[in-house]
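Supplementary notes (optional reading)

For those who missed the lab, this is the record we used. Protein: MoaD/ThiS family protein. Length: 86 residues.
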Amino acid sequence: MAMGTVRYWAAAKAAAGTHEEPYDAGTLAEALAAAVSKHGRGGEFERVVARSSFLVDGTPVGSRPHESVTLPEGGVVEVLPPFAGG
């Protein structure tokens, strides 16, 4: 397990009710499951996270399975929902 920070942007921030919070997880999948459990399964937060992109210490996760993305000690996970605009 590693400890670090999850940062939420735009709709993810609104749904979580916070800009950031700590994680204590070994993988991205574990960190996201803990966050969804904390902020409510089946609610807006879970829907936003399901369609979000993620960065781990600035590196895009892309299509990698979240179970395969190891989180570093002191790392930062960015949750980036789809953005609208032009």
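If you only remember one thing from this example: The first strand starts at residue 2 and ends at 8.
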